[in-house]
Amino acid sequence: MITPRSSGRTGKAFIADRTSFPGTNERGIIKEESYSMKTSIIALLLVVVLAGGLTFGADSLLSYAVRRDAAAAGSGAPPKTSLSREDVLNLSRGWETQSQRSKNWLASSSVEKVQIRSAEGFLLSGEAVITDPASHRWLIAVHGYRGSHSYMAVPASRFGEENYNALLPDLRGCGESEGRYIGMGWPDRKDMLRWIDWILERDSAAQIVLYGISMGGATVMMTAGEELPDQVRAVVEDCGYTSVTDIFTDEMKALFHLPAFPLLNIADFLSPFRAGYSFSDASALKQLAHARVPVLFIHGSADPLVHTEMVYRVYEACTSEKELLIVDGAGHGNSFAHAPELYFDTVFRFLNRYMD
Q: Is 315 within 8 Å of 284 (Cβ atoms)?
């Protein structure tokens, strides 16, 4: 009898070894590699589509927020306020009174169109209202988001009654000034230095007050952190925001019910290429840490846009002489009409400490 030779391997190992013979499972390996490649391609496409969608969304957000020809961020439903019907009527009467005073002021003053160039070459426009050519008191009154110099004629008229001449500029991207994008106060702080120079070229003995409402308030706070000439005596800011990132975060939540991340982060990355500045750089908090000029902070207790808590943060950040006024019941940008006596008595009592 012939005995078969043993392979010297166990059956299990022998079977495993057989599978390694050429051609036995190449088709399976190819299928696995093909599946893995398809999965990688699909994943890559999903990443590209997601990244493209987020970039498009962020670019749309940036355009909506700061491009000149875009819809205003406040064009949606108006924010809820805590003002009663009586408060609204009182505010309306206060506004009418202030408006009439501004008309009288403009009619009795010399008004001239003025222009300067920004560092980037934008032609910036405004109006100079000369109440008294012999007066060295000057006000630079800065308007709010998507506004123009004409709005500031109303509160500025009260300064005219105190013998201030006034410069009412249109910020870049607003009114009659050039610029495709709104600066939200950050590049505007450098433009403010040029407006200050315009006054000093005209009146080297000028005593200058920087005054702004809303975005104008943020602008003058950001300007306060720059190296200012001694002729700038004080700053009055009304309902300005802490930073561009903070205000856009609040607006995204209020208008679109969206978190800031990741769209605002991507928009911040894009903003230097589109608008010429970074959202994350634009901070009144950081600038006020370098302020040397006295600052009066004003805010309405019922502000639905720039939440009142922001004024406490900028007040704490300010390292110069400072004072805080909270106008009870006032909304956004209307404290001067809501409680005019309290408002302007506080303003001029503060300013008279620093004006000759």
A: no
- Please indicate, yes or no, if residue 4 is contained in any of the structural domains: no
How does DSSP classify residue 255? I
Structure-model confidence comparison of residues 234 and 60, the more confident one: 234
> Hey, what amino acid is at 240?
G
Contact 144, 199 (CB under 8 A): no
Taking every pair of Cα atoms in the chain, the longest distance, rounded to a whole number of angstroms, is 135
Is 3 inside a domain boundary? no
Residue 302 predicted with pLDDT over 70: yes
Say if residue 138's pLDDT is above 80.
yes
Most confident of 20-29, 67-76, 318-327: 318-327
Do both 138 and 124 map to the same domain?
yes
* Chain segment 81-90, per-residue pLDDT in tens: 444 445 554 5
Is 25 part of any domain? Answer: no
Q: Is the dihedral of CA 262, 264, 269, 273 positive or negative?
A: positive
Tell me, yes or no, whether 230 and 323 share the same domain: yes
Average pLDDT in the chain: 87
Is residue 116 within 8 A of residue 106, CB to CB? The reply is no
Burial of 53 (0-12, 13-18, 19+ CB in 10 A): exposed
Task: Please enumerate in sequence order all residues whose Cβ is within 8 A of that of 51, keeping only pairs 6 or more positions apart, or say none.
Answer: none
The answer on pLDDT for 330 being more than 70 is yes
CB atoms within 10 A of CB 354: 14
Residue 232 lies in a domain: yes
- 50 & 140 share domain: no
Residue 235: which CATH number? Answer: 3.40.50.1820
- The pTM of this model reads 0.83
Is the distance from CB of 237 to CB of 217 less than 8 angstroms?
yes
| Count of structural domains within the chain | 2
Do 197 and 59 fall into the same domain? Answer: no
Domain that holds residue 314: 85-243+282-351
CA distances from 271 to 38, 243, 277, 283 (A): 36, 15, 6, 15
Smallest CA-to-CA distance from 170 within 137, 215, 106, 205 is with 215
Model confidence pLDDT, tens digit, residues 240-278: 999 999 999 999 999 999 999 999 999 999 999 999 999
On whether both 230 and 210 belong to a single domain, the answer is yes
